[in-house]
Design brief:
The two termini are about 15 Å apart. This protein has a three-stranded parallel β-sheet, sandwiched between helices. With about 80 residues, it is of the alpha/beta class. It contains three helices and three strands.
Length: about 80
């Protein structure tokens, strides 16, 4: 079974690495495969630059938007 974890992100340059690390470390019984979907909702700080380090990780998907549209919009994009 595969689990998809959607994480909306907006101006999280100080916390994004901690969040991704903690989400990666989550272990759930019966889940053998998981993906993390990070949706950068138009961040204006260094968040987009920090997300670049995860591009080569095949378990992490990064979606970026140029304009902030809100958390609900980010969740819909992730779905």
């Amino acid at each position: 079974m595969k689990l998809s974890i959607i994480v909306p992100v907006y101006n999280e340059e100080n916390t994004i690495n901690i969040v991704v690390s903690r989400v990666c470390d989550i272990q759930i019984a019966g889940i053998t495969n998981k993906e993390i979907i990070l949706i950068d909702d138009g961040s204006t700080d260094k968040t987009p630059h920090k997300l670049e380090q995860y591009i080569s990780d095949n378990k992490i998907i990064i979606i970026s938007t140029k304009k902030n549209a809100g958390k609900g919009s980010s969740i819909r994009k992730g779905l």
